[in-house]
Amino acid sequence: MTTLTRAQLGALGEQLAVEHLSSLGLRIVARNWRCRYGELDVIAEDADRTLVFVEVKTRTGDGFGGLAQAVTPQKVRRLRRLTGVWLAEQEQRWPAIRVDVIGVRVGRRREPELFHLRGVG
Asked: Which pLDDT does position 109 carry in this prediction?
């Protein structure tokens, strides 16, 4: 794999995450939604109408810590705030919501690895 910029690496990770979610039967509702408080990477809906807000973390290794270190309590609070802002803008309602994190590790010599943590916040 050639050297990717941070933006390209992030876009690759998000695309792999979307493909993973789609393969699980989730319908993608929105990608890269932004407001003044930040960004939600992926918003999806599963078969039982649970709305899933997905934070995607893409890394080339574990030099900055693994997935657990990337999702701090502060990050979870920020994601919950963003989900509240997004939901307030919607006319539709969902019976349940969930925040997931998908970690993608892109190495130079092997296929990307994907880790999916459900219900982090």
From this structure: 67
Residue 107 · residue 120 · CB < 8 Å: no
Count of CB atoms situated within 10 Å of the CB of 99: 21
Query: Within a domain: residue 76?
Result: yes
CATH number at residue 45: 3.40.1350.10
Asked if 27 contacts 51 with a C-beta cutoff of 8 angstroms, the reply is no
Round the average pLDDT of the chain to a whole number and report it. 88
pLDDT band, very low/low/confident/very high, at 68 (cuts 50, 70, 90) = low
Specify whether the CB–CB gap between 86 and 105 falls below 8 A: no
pTM: 0.88
Q: Which of 85, 86, 69 is nearest to 120 (CA)?
A: 69
Domain of 84 in residue numbering reads as 6-117
Q: For 26, which DSSP code? A: P
Does the residue 1 lie in any domain?
no
SS3 for 31-80 is EEEEECCEEEEEEEECCCCEEEEEEEEEECCCCCCCHHHHCCHHHHHHHH
